Fold this protein.
Amino acid sequence: MRNLVIVLGDQLNDDSAVYDGFERNKDAVWMAEVAEESTHVWSHKARITLFLSAMRHYEQRTTQRGYCVAYRRLDDRTNTQSLRQELLRSIAQFKPSGLVVVEPGDYRVREQLELAAKEAGLALEIRPDRHFLSTVDDFRRHAEGRTQLRMEYFYREMRKRYGVLMDGGLPAGGEWNFDKDNRESFGSEGPVGVPVPLEFKPDRITREVMDLVADRFGRHPGSMDGFGWAVTPEEAEQALADFIEHRLPWFGAYQDAMWMDEPWLFHSRLAAAMNLKLLDPRKVIAAAEAAYRSGAAPLAAVEGFIRQILGWREYVRGIYWTQMPGYLERNELGATASLPRFFWTGKTDMNCLRQVITQTLDFGYAHHIQRLMVTGLYCLLAGIDPKQVHEWYLAVYVDAVEWVELPNTLGMSQYADGGVMASKPYVASGKYINRMSNYCKGCQYKPDSCPMTEMYWSFLEKHQEKLAKNPRMLMQLKNLKGRDANSAVQR
Ligand SMILES: Cc1cc2nc3c(=O)[nH]c(=O)nc-3n(C[C@H](O)[C@H](O)[C@H](O)COP(=O)(O)OP(=O)(O)OC[C@H]3O[C@@H](n4cnc5c(N)ncnc54)[C@H](O)[C@@H]3O)c2cc1C
Ligand code: SF4
């Protein structure tokens, strides 16, 4: 055998760079399901199901396309449940001359592959991942010479480079950013006519995986009931079409809003499909722009949505790969408290946390503001050790892969990187949550004196010396004196 071509569980695009120069009579695809990937953090059952089912569908598709796939199943009797060990065993069996892989999405996995290659005395060729619209080197070049990194400038470069939402060299509508038109709340009447998103009934492969997960990971958190995530590229494209037609027009306005027992609202639910590479971000961006050009969706909604994918998603990947491995150890605010047990049960008397954690355990999903301004806010204010916070987020969301989860958690949400990712700590009092949701209506506390608000003041007091150096925090610190929580509603 010439090359053993490694495909990881989040690399399921049929046009992956691993197939460049692939010769069917010389090379073979290698994939392995190993328990280690579900236990290194205590993964949600729906997350495990999604990865394993999508991998098994990929194996089926790839075999049908005429490739030879060496596939290790989790329930194979001899499976060592370690990626490195399984790779070494396959190397001993097939005796390839080399190994090929596309850039993994996780530093830890990359290290394991490198170690296995070294142990076997083989070269490991790591190819750039062309699923993304920018490379890590593009990001490095962007960052060079800048004293402060900000997503906005990176995003504008990407818009120009790919001609996205551009009219004759200028941004469509004359502005780069329509945030001022977005970020509304629902008002007391709540959301009206939220469309039910398209879900996919588990097929035979998914049902088999669900049985396996129930058997092997039954004590893991979360539920698989109602599992309806896309596990193939076809399903992912249907989910995209469903979002563009039924939810995109309202995405911008309500992207920050939250409401009791409404887990999806107008969000796309496409992160998992994109992160597993079942869906190409170019297709998502093109479909959104087409909706604007045809008049089906307003510019503010489309720009707000595209910014998340062409901007944030690419940007955080650059942060991850240019900051690792030291990034994982950062703890700027010296937070050391333990993650409360209720993060795994949802049993707390704070209704905002109860709502978001229960929804997370039920579906493996919460939208950005729920992650940032409810669970993330609590952890930041309570001084929870950022590594424990990171491990929770990596475990409980179906879309969690470390390259995207870590900068969002440790950087954006916990400010543990001291401002590499976010220009200030995202802190607010309970009044912000009250403004953006109806959670406080169902809570035994009142937002102006609830634990979230009390912790907010304590946080400002405790860190005021450090925060005073940041001009963006001055207003909040000024109001610390009079404890005017109305100043703390902006995120
Ligand atoms: C603490 C924390 C942890 C997070 N962990 C993850 C994670 O593990 N995986 C993940 O994909 N996203 C993560 N995010 C970003 C964001 O919350 C999710 O991408 C989004 O909620 C997924 O739901 P959706 O597909 O309905 O997204 P939508 O709200 O519909 O947004 C559209 C798309 O934009 C992209 N996107 C939006 N915000 C971000 C962002 N901040 N960074 C990168 N991409 C973004 C996603 O691909 C998403 O599918 C995290 C955010 C926070 C605050
Ligand atoms: S009152 Fe405070 S604790 Fe209760 S839901 Fe509102 S913000 Fe959360």
